[in-house]
Amino acid sequence: MNDQNIMIVDDDLSLLRVIEHHLSGAGHQTRAINKPDEALKLLEEETFDMILCDMKMPGLSGLDILKQINKLGVDVLFIIITGYPTVEEAVEAMKLGAFDFIQKPVDKNHLLRVVEKASEVITLRRENRHLKSLVKQQFAFDKIIARSASMRNVCTQAAQVALSNVSILISGETGTGKELLAKAIHNSSKVKKGPFIALNCGAIPANLIEAELFGHVKGAFTGAVSARMGLFEAANSGTIFLDEIGDLPLEMQGKLLRVLQENVVVPVGSNTQREISVRVISATHQILPEMVSAGTFREDLFYRLNIVPLEIPPLRDRMDDIAFLFKHFIKKQLQVDGREMLSIDKKVVTVLEDYDWPGNVRELENLARRIVALTANNEIVLNDIPDNIQKNKRQGVLPVDMPDSGIDLEEWMDRLVVRALKKNDWNQSKTAKFLNISRNTLIYRMEKRGLRRNSD
Q1: Phi, psi (5° rounding) for residue 137?
Q2: How far is Cα 181 from Cα 310, in angstroms, rounded to an integer?
Q3: Could you say which architecture CATH assigns to the domain 5-128?
């Protein structure tokens, strides 16, 4: 039996002490209250798993307390203690959500059996809530195609910090999917029922961005014909996503820092502070530490935003994702157009994996949409791929640029092996010869690293 935090409410002090003694002796944490109004106040301050409450007390009855608990939306198992329960009282209590009755005089064994049964229900509820939370969280990140180890690692980190309210800074090249990751974090967070507001800091003129972020009052500046709420207020109880935060003017960086430190905004033209509670996720394609060194980005703001850094690798470093992303985008556009799925020539996939993708995932998605719009065949072939993609092959299988953060050597070796397997149509003997290793060595690595032929 799991130990539970139990509140006992009864105006009979002697009975209160007896029940408290029995339950604490069984290993439970108990709070004994002999005034019903004090019990309601305590429920607003502390969390309890279970309440044992006398049916009839001066002032508020047990049913009155149960009704108030339902009104407050408190998640707690309620057990009635009563001398002579009537059928009407029993029916009403059950309708209100009471779990069980304990009759006076209270028998210790019966008391412990009822509490143990209630404990089992509480444990099941906790497990169900946890499983539902995991399912919802997983669903949010399922929208991100992540076959490569590097991208799966990013999603794992993002899922871990989603339930916290700390600021997150997502870095990555343009087109890698920073906003998609930010939305997934929001949809897995405690504020997922709140709004998700996104702003591209580089797309708003410097003279308007303060009003855009914090709002303005009527007449604050020319053209302010009426008051307007800022995006921080609009995102209250939710998430604000500040994309391209590196483009924020230096003067605005100081004002943003103040908002993050004090959780208040002051609309342009006003002296009145407005409290906010907002989860902040920012993103940039720039290298902010270099900007800090150059004096173009405030160091204190950088550390405020960069509590949890997440770096999305460029598509050229996520070779395992390319084919799956391409098929996903093709299928998505075909569904929009109401067309049947197209088959894809293997040579097309090879060409796509050889390309460097300077525009990253966004470029790949645009290519898929273009192909669906132009092809009249049932299969996507090499002629459907633009010449610039076919001709501009990447140089080898290693990254052209060596990132400051380093590379995962094991992951790159996996990519090399997978490419060799694909080149040799997954024939292990041919692949081993191609790599100048023994077949046993190849099989060992495939089994150790989970390298398998993925179904189309």
Answers
A1: -65, -45
A2: 10
A3: 3-Layer(aba) Sandwich (3.40)
Tens-place pLDDT, residues 105-134: 889 999 999 999 988 888 888 776 655 555
- Pick among 1.20.1600.10, 3.40.720.10, 1.10.8.60, 3.40.120.10: CATH of 315-397: 1.10.8.60
Q: pLDDT tens digits for 196-216?
A: 999 999 899 888 899 899 988
Which position has the token pair 């607003």?
44
What share of the chain has pLDDT > 90, as a percent?
42
CATH superfamily of 147-313: P-loop containing nucleotide triphosphate hydrolases (3.40.50.300)
pLDDT of residue 359: 94
Same fold, 5-128 and 147-313: yes
Over the stretch 71-93, which tens digit does the pLDDT of each residue have? Answer: 877 888 999 888 766 667 777 88
Q: What percent of the chain has pLDDT over 70?
A: 91
pLDDT tops 70 at residue 454 = no
- pLDDT over 50 at 299, yes or no: yes
Residue among 314, 310, 306 at smallest CA distance from 160: 310
In the chain, what are the domain boundaries?
5-128, 147-313, 315-397, 408-456
Please tell me the CATH code under which domain 408-456 is placed: 1.10.10.60
